[in-house]
Amino acid sequence: MPYCPKCGANIEATTQYCPSCGAPVSTMGAASSQPVSPPPLSANLPPPPPPGQTMVAYSTADRVALGKIKNFALLGIVGIILGFVIPLFTLDSALGLASVSTATISSVANIVEIYSAIAIVGVAIGIVSIVMVRSAFKTLAPVDSQFGTPSTMVLGMFASMVLAIVAVIALIGFAFSIASQVAANPGVTPNFSGILVFSGLIILAGISWLVGIIGIILGLWRTGTRYNEGLLKIGGIFYIIPLLDIVAPILVYLGASSAEKKVGQPA
Questions:
Q1: How far apart are CA 79 and CA 187, in angstroms?
Q2: Does pLDDT of 30 surpass 70?
Q3: Residue 214: burial class (beta carbons within 10 Å; 0-12, 13-18, 19+)
Q4: What is the C-alpha to C-alpha distance for residues 146 and 223, in angstroms, rounded to an integer?
Q5: Residue by residue, what is the 3-state secondary structure of the chain?
Q6: How does pLDDT run across 106-153, given as a tens digit for each residue?
Q7: Phi and psi, residue 64, nearest 5°
Q8: Which residues of 37-48 are buried (b: 16+ CB within 10 A; e: fewer)?
Q9: pTM for this predicted structure
């Protein structure tokens, strides 16, 4: 039986078009009586995915996003060092302040300066890390729509910071108001209605912060699912568990590093 000279499929001698590939036999000459070997498969094709899993085509967005997640985790590790390791070097000085006889103005000032600097640096690191992880989710959103929701939820952490600042300003204003009332009328009971505003702002800040944390956990969980990395999922969950949140950035960093190997390097 003759064969199609293009794809090698069996065809009838009178057929004008190959029923397999649709090539016009008449324009290619008479159908060949010898089979044509199909083109070899490319050796560079990736292996088929395991049963039950879908092949995911990775892109530059995946590499960029994983790099940002690693930076987010590294900033978290630095924050842990600042929050737990550095204060140990000033522990003796801090304990010395418990004794009035040994506490001096200069020693108090030094401790206050150290811890104030740690707090400022910690807040800055926190802000940058939040920006970093949200940027990672935004980078993945165009190629995987499930990252759009976590990216939006992380904004709750910024809203929480703004509400916390407003709450502190309200508290300071409330304190000055109470002081003025007591100074002007010592026998009059101060008006504590301002404390309701402060309390409401603190509650809203806490809710916003919780929404942001859930957004990070959700985003890291979906990142772990995308790259089949359990460490990313576990690290994300640990962020909301007290004490375990200390190891969360370490797990996230290891998971993101492993995922980078699966995605590969740009050509």
A1: 48
A2: no
A3: middle
A4: 10
A5: CCECCCCCCECCCCCCECCCCCCECHHHCCCECCCCCCCCCCCCCCCCCCCCCCCCCCCHHHHHHHHHHHHHHHHHHHHHHHHHHHHHHCHHHHHHCCCCCCCCHHHHHHHHHHHHHHHHHHHHHHHHHHHHHHHHHHHHCCCCHHHHHHHHHCHHHHHHHHHHHHHHHHHHHHHHHHHHHHHHCCCCCCCCCHHHHHHHHHHHHHHHHHHHHHHHHHHHHHHHHHHCCHHHHHHHHHCCCCCHHHCHHHHHHHHHHHHHHHHCCCC
A6: 555 666 676 677 778 878 888 999 999 999 999 999 999 999 999 999
A7: -65, -45
A8: eeeeeeeeeeee
A9: 0.67
Tell me the longest C-alpha to C-alpha distance in the chain: 115
pLDDT at 15 over 80: no
Q: What percent of the chain has pLDDT over 70?
A: 71
pLDDT tens digits, 191-241:
666 677 778 888 999 999 999 999 999 999 999 999 999 999 999 999 988
CA dihedral (266, 152, 148, 241) positive or negative: positive
List CB contacts of 46: < 8 A, sequence separation 6 or more. Answer: 55
Give residue-wise pLDDT tens across range 236-255. 999 988 888 889 999 999 99
- Whether residue 158 contacts residue 209, with contact meaning beta carbons closer than 8 Å, is answered with no
> Look-up: residue for tokens 């309701």?
196
Residues whose CB falls within 8 Å of the CB of residue 236, separated by 6 or more in sequence, listed in order: 216, 217, 218, 219, 220, 221, 223, 224, 248, 252
Q: 66 pLDDT exceeds 80?
A: yes
Q: What are phi and psi of 103, to 5 degrees?
A: -75, 130
